[in-house]
From TrEMBL:
Transmembrane segments: none annotated. This is WYL domain-containing protein. Residues 160-223 form the WYL domain. It comes from the Bacteria. It comes from Subtercola boreus. Residues 329-348 are annotated as: Disordered.
Length: 348
């Protein structure tokens, strides 16, 4: 009996990069259908004349991701079809994505950039990019200029990302050390991975925890050691796993709120006001949604005295502990007495 496998998954960064390249390559823009049927990462799963609802939801999330990365994605609708979303066209205007005019490079920096561009042209991604451009031309869409000069700012992946992606493809169990907040040492987890998802800029793996025998979602940044891929296969229906995980994370995000005060005109205020779901209250405080109290505490502590936490109390305590630890870490060591005598303090 021959096993039938679906197309190999395309890495998320490659899909986002291909999407940006395609939208930069056309002045008139592309419809959603043209994107899903031609762009690397979508076209492999596109069903002509079939149900592509899951793929469309993926595209909606990807739009939010590239906008969050600072890419100026625009939409336009045909003049004769006002109010219809079916033929909306998406594009990235070249002028809005150029480097600022006041940025320049030294000859040495230009040489390094040229070397990087040469290496990129020889990479596997460029082959897929050329394939995407050929597909666009087959639709009658002519790229207005070469797109090799553009590189979106893709977030650095966690070290666990690649081995987990490999395990997902092979459908085998993985083991990794996972450190939960408050624990002094990590615990080894054995997981049947079902989907990698990005939520609020952070990567999570959802899967079946073999010890608990139940689905669990793990934050990749809390995997504190190597991910060991086993040879033990597992059978599980992963269809809809990513959507389920994202829905559950969204529910947690919506249910958890914090109220903070940011110093007017500060970097903290600018960043927190523009956080997804942020609400400015009548008293100028800000209501923030979050999925993980400890991650939010890390973020707020990074603003130092620019932020004060009103509620919840647990968050205020967590931020204070981080600030106190920072102060303690940067205290100067006591210097020994000049004669090196009994007054000298010995440190272990």
């Amino acid at each position: 009996m021959t096993e039938t496998r679906g197309p190999a998954p395309v890495p998320v960064e490659e899909r986002l990069f291909s999407l940006v390249l395609a939208l930069l390559a056309t002045e008139a823009g592309l419809t959603k259908n043209e994107i899903l049927s031609t762009v690397q990462g979508y076209r492999q799963r596109y069903v002509f004349g079939g149900d592509n609802a899951t793929l469309e939801r993926q595209f909606e999330r990807d739009k939010d991701d590239i906008r969050e990365l600072g890419v100026p994605l625009e939409t336009s609708e045909p003049l004769d079809e006002s109010g219809s979303n079916h033929n909306l066209r998406y594009r990235i205007p070249k002028g809005s994505y150029d480097l600022p005019a006041d940025i320049s490079f030294s000859p040495e920096e230009i040489a390094l950039l040229n070397l990087a561009a040469m290496a990129w042209r020889e990479g596997s991604l460029s082959r897929e990019s050329r394939h995407a451009l050929l597909k666009l031309r087959s639709l009658g869409v002519d790229p207005v200029e070469p797109v090799l000069g553009y590189a979106p700012r893709i977030r650095t992946r966690d070290a666990a990302f690649d081995p987990l992606t490999d395990a997902l493809t092979r459908r085998v169990l993985v083991r990794f050390p996972y450190l939960k907040p408050g624990d002094l040492s990590p615990r080894e987890r054995t997981v049947a991975p079902l989907a990698l998802v990005q939520h609020e800029g952070r990567w999570h793996i959802t899967g079946i925890d073999q010890h608990a025998g139940e689905p669990r979602t793990f934050l990749l940044s809390r995997i504190v050691g190597p991910v060991n891929r086993t040879r033990t296969p597992f059978v599980s229906d992963s269809v809809g796993s990513a959507e389920t995980a994202l829905r559950q994370l969204d529910e947690i995000w919506a249910a958890n709120t914090a109220v903070v005060r940011a110093r007017q005109g500060s970097d903290a205020e600018t960043r927190l006001v523009n956080r997804r779901g942020s609400i400015r209250n009548p008293d100028d405080s800000l209501t923030l949604h979050f999925t993980d109290l400890h991650l939010l505490a890390d973020e707020l502590a990074g603003f130092g005295p620019e932020v004060f936490v009103d509620s919840p109390a647990e968050l205020r305590v967590a931020v204070r502990r981080r600030l106190e630890l920072t102060v303690a870490t940067h205290q100067p060591l006591d210097r020994p007495a000049p004669d090196g005598g009994d007054d000298a303090e010995e440190t272990a």
